[in-house]
Amino acid sequence: MRALNDIYIITRRQLLLLSRVPEVLIFSTIQPVMFVLLFRYVFGGSIDTGQPGGYVQLLMPGIFVQTVAFTLAGTASGLAEDMKKGLIDRFRSLPISQSALVIGRTLGDSLLNIVVLAVMGIAGYVVGWRPSSGIGNIALGFLFLLFFGYALSWVGVLVGLSASDARVVQNVSFIVTFPLTFLSNAFAPTTGMPRALQYFAEWNPVSTMVAACRELFGLENQFGATAGSFPSEHPLVTSLFYMVVIMVIFVPLSLRKYRNYAE
Amino acid sequence: MKTVIAENLVKTYDKGKVRALDGLNLDVEEGTVLSVLGPNGAGKTTVVRILTTLLRPDSGNAQVAGIDVVNNPEKVREVIGLSGQYAAVDEILTGYDNLVMFGELYHLGKKQAVVRANELLERFSLTEAAKRPIKTYSGGMRRRLDLAASLIVKPKVLFLDEPTTGLDPRGRQEMWGVIQELVKGGVTLLLTTQYLEEADQLADDIAVIDTGKVIARGTSDALKKQVGGERLEVVVEQQHVAKTMEIVSAVSGHKAGLDEGLRLITAPVSTGSVALFEVLKSLDSAGIHALDVGLKRPSLDDVFLALTGHTAEVKIEEKEVKK
Ligand SMILES: Nc1ncnc2c1ncn2[C@@H]1O[C@H](COP(=O)(O)OP(=O)(O)OP(=O)(O)O)[C@@H](O)[C@H]1O
Ligand SMILES: [Mg+2]
After folding, report:
1. Which domain holds residue B194?
2. Closest-CA residue in chain A for B155?
3. Exposed end of chain B (fewer CB within 10 Å): N or C?
């Protein structure tokens, strides 16, 4: 019970921090909204999708996934900041649950994702995104996105605690997330890629997530399949599997790192 | 009763390459103040981090309030307060927010946490700045807030790692006042410092450490005795120097020394203020007006020099050159 209370307080701290620096919230939403507009109007015209409603229907799930993938960087740099300021030492010297700081941070970052996804959803709607699968499936899609962000947030914990410097954290997170989001079906069909990359793109968790969201939002996943492979045929299951694997690996690793972080 | 005990602590970093603690022994008697005095890199922060459960020693053991820090860190955390070398508070949040949050983390409940936060802000003269973000605070205010955060639940043992480093003389004075108040309240305190004067001011007991080991231990007075007793110092106008040297030598029983540039005459004395009074009386009847006169005890700088063969300051320079 005490642990839950500790986590709750840390999560609230996270939100308080956000409310004191609204720029963070503004910039975390402006960037994805900008992506929506750029892709919708710059590339949208030249990509023939054959889907009713056009490119924006396929684009939105891609941008949603890309945005939640960047939770990794947010969590990592936030923790690196705390570490630099000695805040982690203070928290670790308190008689509180030792994992509360980390869990609270990941939860806080997920709450931020809710806001960001909502704003993006609205922006998408304005430029023509019309999910057609009914409220239940749409909600499930967003839940999926939140979960994915949450799982990656744990990778961010490890990155943040391992790096020696906040700038390094930014770069590392960038190097991890950028290829993953672009070597995927998020913005363009994978079928145009070199053969080897196609395999990578197919098994890439970002692709399976995008495909899963498209399915949940009522679209045919036309960017995915190169050869009727398992991930492109079963994106929901594969994505779920990835999330579980990420959590199973990174939650214990990150918590251990946190406990011994100065050793 | 010993409230803090550290026995034979060894801690290495970088896979054994850096030996930060090399068999360090310490203890703090209940209700007293121990100052751990040492130059940069001596191992002060490392000891504090081990005693506050943030770091595990490679070997040796340590107890705080009778609880083993390695085997029972959760229990230790319930009885300690820590203010680390760098003020650890949320820059973006206000002083008030920070204290309320820490209060809640100590499970005071929202209401109690608010009451306690206001009490502490008042006590550390931060009430006016309470609703401002920490990033607008001066270094001294930050340190005080950080200290306040470590006092939310009255700790049995308080650890302060270099509480005045980086403060200007006024900030340092204020901090000393705050710490002296705390000590009157009966807390057991272990504080580290690089300032010899600070250890002298605040501590009952001093442990001088160098390269991870305690090289001397005792009260400030005892340490000074180890280096030598008091000296009488008189400064006079040039024309009175010769006569004054005679007087001082007579009172001291040793030949007085002279620093010609400063016109400073010094001699060791064993009778303290009696000798001082005799010299003043003789000077007066000789019609000499002393510009400055006093009894000087050796400074802790002298102590460090006598113990290690180098001053703390020289050590720092060497370290930086090596880097
Ligand atoms: N994380 C670390 N990795 C490697 N070496 C370290 C680490 N922390 C400390 N050291 C080294 O261990 C030695 C003792 O460091 P420590 O921080 O305990 O000294 P200190 O007395 O607190 O110094 P200062 O007055 O500069 O704060 C130093 O030589 C330092 O360089
Ligand atoms: Mg230090």
Report:
1. 2-222
2. A94
3. C
